[in-house]
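Q: Now give one record:
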Amino acid sequence: MPAFPIPSGPYSVGCSDLVSKCGPDRCLFRLFYPASVTSESKSALWLPSREYADGFSSLVKSNVFSWIFRYLFSGAVMHATLNADLETAKRVEKMPVIVFSHGLSMMRTTYSHICVELASKGAVVASVEHADGSATTTYYLGQDKDDKSKFKKFWLPCDNIDTSNPNEHNIRNKQVHKRADECIEALNHLDELNKGTFQGVATEINLQQFKGQLDLEKAAILGHSFGGSTTITTLAKDTRFKLGVALDCWMFPLDKKVYQNVPPVPFLFINSYTYPSQEEVTEMRKLDNDTFGVEAERKIVTIVDSNHLSQSDFSLLTSWNWFTRKCGLHGPVNPTQLMKVNNELVEAFIGKHLRFKFGAELDDVIKKYKDNVLVGSNVKVDEEKVRMSKQELYCSPKRQRQEL
């Protein structure tokens, strides 16, 4: 089993699952944070429980796949300690906060490496597990009838939607708004953690240790694929987020009002080489700086020889060989190298705009990895079509925010 690359930051990392309340309308996220770790500390498993393997197997309609999935990944561990104490001795600054949104058919741990990497640099990352039907599976808690101090998990399956469904866009649009609301709720709970008022249920860490430790003025939103469109929608709904980064963004679920309500904050698209279509890239170009006269940094970059899974943990948890490349788990270049490139792009952009000490100019990172990064997209688009699509968003000389 290949191991995750060791995070590059100065801090060890802890993680813990937080659930806001009982019932299906809960907010569930895995919290990653700088931690105080001892030699006896227990590393967190990448696969939280067998139900997630069963969830993946149901998507491919194969019970055998569940066994294979558990065999391959049940022993995988993160470079993060489960339920560790917060590191307070080494830190001198409050921690910026980042909310992460997973892709379709994924879960809260599918992007653990990038979350661990950011936490190792001194950030707090809340990786949301969405309850809109887009997670591979997820759960909510209910109190035990006989013992109110105990809780039972009720599992929710992934809601497969046929791409031939004529209502697919409306369904996905409804989902992306629910997902954005969950990201906003996660930020609310981070605010409560900072105030010392978050309660939660079935919590396994001391929540009071986070009181006064978070910097809610430095909040970012980050997501992959469906999580990318969730990132854009979240920005349109909540101006507390100061920037967004979308990894291989799926633009299909978005609507016109979302584009019109995105505030003039920095935004970065990091695309794979094989995923975005001409239509997707044309939609991304609606968020160029000139669409509404935005002065904030807006860029599209592409990681050469990558595919849609290159920014997920799957590319790191499988051996780099011809068979796994044939299965589409990664591209022709060592996935550890591509993940390093991706993470440095993310860290540079977030760090710069949140005034964090690991921030850097994006152009410097691109120059450093000039063989791996392409400025813009490898997909050629019709510039006239781009211009017309931008023109459709102009409602007046001065944009007016609308209620979403």
Notes: DSSP finds twelve helices and 14 strands in the chain. Residues 218 and 355 are 8 Å apart (CA to CA). The longest helix spans residues 168-195.
